[in-house]
Amino acid sequence: MQDKNKWTPLFIAADYLRDQTVRTLIELGADINMGDNLGRKALRIAVTRALVKLSGDVDLNPITNQAIFLAVQQGNEAVLRVLLACGEAVDRKDFDGWTPLMRAAASGHEVVAKLLLENGANIEAQDMEYGWTPLLWAVEKGQAAVVQLLLDKGADIEAQNNWDGRTPLSWAAEKGKGAIVKLLLERGAKIDSEDTEYDYTPLSWAVKKGQEAIINLLLEKGANINAKDQFGRTPLSRAVQEGDEATAKLLLEKGAKIEVKDEFCKIPLSQAIKAGNKAMVELLLEKGADIEVKDEFRQTPLSRAATMGNQAVTKLLLEKGAHIETKDWDNRTPLSWAAEGGHETVTKLLLEKGANIEAKDGEYSQTPLSLAARHGHEAVTKLLLENGADFETKDTQYNQTPLSWAAKEGHGAVAKLLLEKGAYLQAKDRSGRTPLSWAVQGGHEAVVRLLLNNGADVQASDKNGRTPVSWAYIGGHQAIVKLLHMP
Question: What are the protein's UniProt keywords (predicted)?
Answer without folding.
Answer: ANK repeat, Repeat
